[in-house]
Amino acid sequence: MRPVLLRHDSSARHDTGAHPERIARIRAIEAALAERDWLGWDVAESPAASDALLHAVHPPAYCAAIEQACRAGGGALDADTIVSAGSHEAARHAAGGAAALVDALLAGAPVGASLHRPPGHHAEASRAMGFCLFNNVAVAARHALDAHGLERVLILDWDVHHGNGTNDLFHADPRVLFCSIHEWPLYPGSGSSADHGSGAGLGATVNLPVPGGSGDAVFTAMVDHVVVPAARAHAPQLILVSAGFDAHADDPLAGCEVSDAGFAAMAASMRRLAAELEAPLGVVLEGGYDLGALARGVVTTLETVARDPGTLPAAPAARHPLADEAAQRVAARRPG
User: Fold this and answer.
1) Which among 286, 254, 288 is positioned nearest to 123, based on CA atoms?
2) Angle, nearest 10°, between helix axes 291-305 and 260-277?
3) Residues contacting residue 296 through CB under 8 Å, at least 6 positions apart
4) Per-residue confidence band for 1, with pLDDT thresholds at 50, 70 and 90
5) Could you tell me which residues are beta bridge partners of residue 176?
6) Where are the beta strands (DSSP E) in 184-248?
7) pLDDT by residue (tens digit) across 111-167?
8) Active site members
9) Cα Rg, the chain, nearest whole Å
10) CA atoms of 13 and 90, how far apart (whole Å)
11) pLDDT at 169 > cutoff 70
């Protein structure tokens, strides 16, 4: 099977106006992919998420409130999160696309991507925030566990903002290893290295805050020397990347300095890991607010994960003191 890409026109009907998370984001991504014949991937329209899919993550009353706000014409849900009449449809397809990506991966597609807006990783069970309505990657992971019977999933979130919603939704669930590399201090203010899960999930939350100004050396070392060893210990049957591109040096909403090559290197590490563990790999779009950096980041990430892993450079990133410190901390907290 060829790689699969899920998308839907409704992403352009989530009208936030003059806002960082705007319609131009998805248009820039799709234009860049169309110029490259969609990289030769199988492109499919995403289905809308069913109530059952959404309610596995978000309470029915919350889902109904989002739908009602959009039917009423939209407006501001909080200082950052805007909805319009078309936002509920777009959010349903963003969540449904992530779940359909899981279906395709577990049916034999080696890699794939769900490219929609609004993003999802800030959405909590009963709260929209940070431009997010439904937590798309959480819906995907829950679908893999519940519908497909998987026992172990890895979520790597390399968006520059901490994925607080995903963090909290799987906080006590040992089946989901959640790893987040994010600038700190920065919105939403969560993601301390001291937060490593709770209850049965203690040790399955790996927060890797990095200071502003961190670039390729820090991010790639965190992936290769912290996330990869933790993933090997977890042995996931599915790997999902919450792929935000706002850690890029050109992004206006944060202060990290990752380059196009840095995103390619992180993607290569995940592709090698997926091949080693014989686990399919899915990319779920999150943030990224400089249009050029966003489009390039998506293209280079998808091009990289679609490569034969034998053609990717095998050497891990050079070590970095921040990653070495984090690796020691994570190893000490690892269950067993």
Assistant:
1) 286
2) 30
3) 32, 260
4) confident
5) 153
6) 205-210, 238-243
7) 999 999 999 999 999 999 999 999 999 999 999 999 999 999 999 999 999 999 999
8) 122
9) 18
10) 7
11) yes
Domain range for 283 is 4-333
How far CA 246 is from CA of 15, 57, 80, 84, 295, in Å, comes to: 20, 25, 16, 24, 11
Q: How many helices (H) and strands (E) does the chain have?
A: 11, 10
Confidence of residue 101 (pLDDT cuts 50, 70, 90): very high
pLDDT at 336 over 80: no
Element (H, E) at 111: strand 111-114
Tokens of 110: 């080696």
Number of domains in the chain: 1
Q: What is the CATH number of the domain that holds 290?
A: 3.40.800.20
What is the residue whose two structure tokens read 């706000």? 69
Q: Which two tokens stand for residue 240?
A: 């999902």
For residue 324, give both structure tokens: 């070495």
**Which candidate, 334, 163, 117, 160, places its Cα nearest to that of 258?**
160
Separation of alpha carbons 104 and 112, rounded Å: 8
Give yes or no for a cis peptide into 118 (omega within 30° of 0). Answer: yes
pLDDT value at 307 more than 80: yes
